[in-house]
Amino acid sequence: MTKTQPHPLEKLMEGRIAILDGAMGTTIRAYGMTETDMRGERFKDAKKDLLNDGDLFSLTRPQMIGDIHRQFLEAGADIIETNTFGATGIAQSEFFVDDPRERGGRKDPEFYQKVIEDRFLGELAWEINEQSARLAREWADRVGSATGRQRFVAGSMGPLTVSLSNSPDADDPGFRVVTFDQVKAAYKQQAQALIAGGADLLLVETIFDTLNAKAALVAIREVFDENGNEIPLMISAAVGRGGETMISAQTIEAFLNAVHHAKPLSVGLNCSLGPDLMAPFLRELAQKADVAVSCYPNAGLPNPLSATGFDLTAADMARYLGGFAREGLINIAGGCCGNTPEHIAAIAQALQAVAPRPLPAQAAEACAVESTA
């Protein structure tokens, strides 16, 4: 059987730890955007507040999003994420569709079927994803050419605002607001648009409900099969204090087993409660995973008095991630909420001379050499 050539990111990780970017939302705060800035001319008549719909900035303030990509790339990021964490029709419906609960109704599969079929939401979700990927692609290529170092675009696919695993109704534990096929349809459109925009990788991230993630993975598989081509897949979960994947309440090992079939380039942990509380679960993941391991924690706990909204400084994050690297736990490192370009620059500096966690192929080769010595 002919061995396929490794992806350039795999080649990079054979020699060093790859650097992922930081928090888009945190960095946007520094620009002082207002509701008017978010709306622009296009969404000026929207009935709901849009300021928290940060993905829309890719359409209304693309220069700002491009500038943020530039900052993270110049800080040392090898991989930048598209500004699409909530860019599905399901997530966008929170900002553009009246909530039936305000009239005594409830959100249910019938409601979300209308969301899936809504032409405006579908076209909006596609445009956000495609344009966000094009923006990231432009800056990754521009900085990559200027520095002689290839940069990669990861299409960010966030966890949605609904859960397939839990009922929101304590009196009806079997009730689900949405179906698996509806979630899959939303993710499928997102994956297609991210690839159309030029994403190098797809990143299913901040997983708190593994069933939602499974729908995303099935959707991605369908897209790959239909396209006749695949791009690498990264998978990253958020964990609670006990190491469980939030709503799914799975252990790290159970989560790993649940997504292993997708044959990801990497699995990892992100967001959560900061690097200190993430540490024991990262160690377990690094021990059990047979693929690359990523780690991009929040900058500690939320703190409204901090300039970034989170406790840990750039030096703090560099110290924690540097410690993880020296333990041999990680192949990809970056930051989630609270991590600015300054944080990523400090992390990149701290990790530049530290060897990456040995990948399975490398470990096998090392064993073979030792056994024949």
Structural summary, described in words:
- It is built from 15 helices and eight strands.
- The protein has 373 residues and is α/β, with parallel strands linked by helices.
- It has a single domain, classed as Homocysteine-binding-like domain (TIM Barrel).
- The protein has an eight-stranded parallel sheet with strand order 1-8-7-6-5-4-3-2.
- Helix 5 (62-74) packs parallel to helix 8, helix 6 packs across helix 8 and helix 13 packs parallel to helix 14.
- The radius of gyration is 20 Å and the shape is globular.
What's the gist of this structure?
It contains 15 helices and eight strands. With 373 residues, the protein is an alpha/beta fold. Strand 4 (201-207), helix 10 and strand 5 form a beta-alpha-beta unit.
CATH superfamily: Homocysteine-binding-like domain
Can you give the helix content as a percent range? 40-55%
Low-confidence stretches: 363-373
What shape does the CA trace take? globular
Give the second-level CATH assignment, the architecture: Alpha-Beta Barrel
What is the number of independent domains?
1
N to C succession of SSEs: HEHHHHEHHHEHEHEHEHEHEHH
CATH topology (fold) name: TIM Barrel
Q: Which CATH class is shown?
A: Alpha Beta
Computed structural class: alpha/beta
Estimate the strand proportion.
Answer: 5-15%
Ordered list of secondary-structure elements with their pairings:
Layout: H1 8-15, E1 18-19, H2 24-29, H3 35-39, H4 57-60, H5 62-74, E2 79-81, H6 89-96, H7 109-117, H8 119-147, E3 152-157, H9 180-196, E4 201-207, H10 210-227, E5 233-237, H11 252-259, E6 266-271, H12 275-288, E7 292-297, H13 314-326, E8 332-333, H14 341-351, H15 360-372
Parallel strand pairs: 1-8, 2-3, 3-4, 4-5, 5-6, 6-7, 7-8
